[in-house]
Specification:
Layout lengths: L8 E5 L3 H17 L5 E6 L3 H11 L3 E3 L2 H6 L5 E4 L6 H10 L3 E5 L6 H14 L3 E4 L6 H11 L6 E9 L23 H17 L2 E9 L4 E4 L2 E4 L5 E8 L4 E7 L8 E8 L3 E5 L5 E5 L10 E4 L20 H17 L8 H20 L3 E2 L1
Parallel strand pairs: 1-2, 1-4, 2-3, 4-5, 5-6, 7-12
Antiparallel strand pairs: 7-13, 8-11, 8-17, 9-10, 11-12, 13-14, 14-15, 15-16
Length: 372
């Protein structure tokens, strides 16, 4: 049975920013890619009234305030997990043990040890897993990865990547669980840096060594008891050596004033350069040497010739969006469940990402490079 011949039963845990993105992705999957629509079986959140309200709004048949009930529901084939980071391991392992496929938002886990346990559980279960690295789903990025692999810019020799946002730049923003190691894990590295690592690996291949530094710029934040300490990093930078021998520069910040979603990267090759900025996600820039009168970067607008775009729009230049990336991710999961494609990144790939960002943190803490 192909991916489009089976209607998947879905449970959603969490109704915040990414929970809503998952719900919209499931509801638009068949519209964009065809086949039978998923069955939106059960939504879990607390309190019960909130779960019921969101189930009605998102189109789920049932609501519960007990996520274990959702995971164990026999009508459910796949569980979408969009909850705070500290809940990821328990929920993912329970879903896998119940025989469900898992779509889990990043970061995969609070610690490398948790990620290792989750990866082992996924392998033992035989179920499909995929992580919510939606920026790797855009048509421009997927086209860029294909171009690099095909040698369009020659041999990649250097990567430069930045992921800056300013959602924590205001020192008056209150303290929250995200700022603790116990519930939030890493800071900018865990929230933003892991996205940058995902695209970096897809473009450049395995990482051999990192040398990093990181800072907590705003050490304390307003709290009901006065102020409370910020336990994780606001920004981090690293120098990278790839297994191929290529070099790299890496930077992420949650306190970079003026930036909303600056996931920007470039790959320099022996015969050209590719560059991209998520804040202008429908533009990919390519440089290959040309005659002096026309030598320079060329803008490539997103369009149906790039992977995934035509499922939403037949006309180039009509712009792809953030939520469309999640629909593409849902389709990748559906194809993997049907056995017609491999889900990337799954928990095995996600463990590699976790080892890199935690390796950067360890390098910053010790002042020494970390090898992989």
């Amino acid at each position: 049975m192909t991916a489009t011949e089976k209607s998947l039963g879905v449970a959603l845990i969490g109704t915040g920013f990414m929970g809503k993105c998952h719900a919209m992705a499931w509801r638009n999957l068949a519209t964009a890619f065809g086949g039978l629509p998923p069955r939106l079986e059960v939504l879990a959140d607390t309190p019960a009234r909130k779960a019921a309200e969101h189930a009605a709004a998102f189109g789920f048949a049932r609501a519960t305030d007990d996520w274990r009930t959702a995971v164990g529901d026999p009508a459910v084939d796949v569980v979408s997990i969009a909850t705070p980071n500290g809940m990821h391991r328990e929920m993912a392992e329970a879903a896998l043990a119940a025989g469900k496929h898992v779509w889990l938002e990043k970061p995969m886990a609070l610690t490398v040890a948790d990620a290792e346990a989750m990866e082992a559980a996924a392998r033992a279960s035989g179920r499909v897993t995929i992580l919510g690295y939606n920026y790797a789903r855009s048509p421009a990025f997927r086209a860029a990865a294909e171009m690099v692999a095909a040698g369009a810019i020659g041999r990649p020799i250097h990567f430069r990547g930045i992921y800056d946002e300013d959602y924590m730049a205001d020192p008056q923003l209150p303290w929250s669980w995200r700022l603790t190691r116990a519930e939030g894990g890493l800071g900018a590295l865990g929230d933003l840096g892991c996205h940058l690592v995902s695209v970096m690996l897809a473009l450049m291949g395995p990482v051999a060594r990192v040398q990093a530094q990181m800072d907590t710029v705003i050490a304390r934040r307003p709290h009901q008891d006065g102020t409370a300490p910020v336990e994780n990093e606001d920004q981090a930078q690293a120098l990278i050596r790839f297994a191929s021998g290529a070099s790299g520069e890496f930077s992420c910040s949650r306190v970079a004033r003026g930036y909303r979603c600056r996931l920007a990267w470039e790959v320099q090759g022996t015969e050209g350069t590719l560059r991209f900025d998520q804040e202008r996600m429908n533009e990919l820039w390519l440089y290959r040497p040309g005659p002096p009168e026309a030598d320079g970067f060329r803008r490539i607008l997103t369009g149906p010739a790039q992977p995934g775009f035509a499922a939403f729009c037949p006309a180039a230049g009509h712009n792809f969006g953030f939520n469309e990336q999640k629909v593409v991710e849902a389709e990748m999961l559906r194809q993997a469940i049907a056995g017609t494609a491999r889900a990337w990144p799954d928990f095995t790939d996600g463990l590699v990402i976790e080892r890199i960002i935690h390796g950067m943190a360890r390098s910053a803490e010790t002042g020494q490079p970390v090898t992989f």
